Amino acid sequence: MTVLIAPDSFKGTYTAGEVADAVACGVESSGGTAIRLPVADGGEGTLDVLTVPLGLRPVTTRSRNPWGSPCRPTYGLSDDGTAVIEIAAASGITTPHDGPRDPVTATTYGTGMLVADAARRGARRIVVAAGGSATTDGGTGAIAAIEAGGGLRGASVTVLTDVTTRYVDAARVFGPQKGADAGAVQLLTRQLEAKARALPRDPSSVDATGAAGGFSGGMWARYGAELRSGAEYILDVIGFDTLAAGASAIVVGEGRLDGQTKAGKIISAVLARAGASPVYAVVGSVGDDLGDYRSRFADVIVATDAVAMHEAGRAIAARLMTGSGRPASG
To answer: Where are the beta strands (DSSP E) in the chain?
Structure first.
């Protein structure tokens, strides 16, 4: 009996790797075989998840945070020329900053510096995970930094996203969670409209161009960046389908299972590719808006710490081995 354990991070508390290990130890304590396969959807934890499969080594370099202060973020670079950059590393909403965190002036310039740095170091394929940004600058800050840093030097760009929001809608959809009030949202929207007209291609009617406050749209318009579902890209890279085909069950996880889970998140991608394998969810909490989506799972178990995650793994393995039905929900 083999259980494939493929959780996302519990944001702010446990990394995907920590969740996978806790659940796996529980499975193994019941005599099962556990395959640890931490995942991400293009946001927090993407670099960690892709480091081993892509053979990435860490590169720490100088950059700027969203408000122009110096910072030293890390990205990954492989010997065969693949770079993986999290936009949250230099342009994130949680990036350290001592001054005002103004959502209107926040810029992706620092992420552009990382892209240019990767290109200078020989990257041929640059993958940017677009989750967790503090910015709504339409990617113009990043474009300015890339051009100032010598351009892409022939490298291709792929932007990973878990949203389908379009360019000029980015402020309305994501601005409030970045601290923008109604007036700031209106101002940022007008700016995005003007930037869309000024870019080499208009991203306004293209799905997913609003990711990271329009960063994805700016990259698409200026550099022809490929826009991909972060969840699908990561599942492809880590060989999910092959591992799932040989599993007796699959365990997914995230900090909160709710109505947003089915909108391009990693769990929805796993469910779509799980085949006949039952899928169990081990999560930090369950939203009231989950509705009938809960029926997609063999069971949903709430586990708020490592001990509870271990117990969840133990219970799932025990029930699978005895064939006695669904584990009790937490």
So the answer is: 2-5, 33-36, 56-60, 63-64, 70-71, 74-78, 82-86, 125-129, 156-161, 226-229, 249-257, 279-286, 299-302
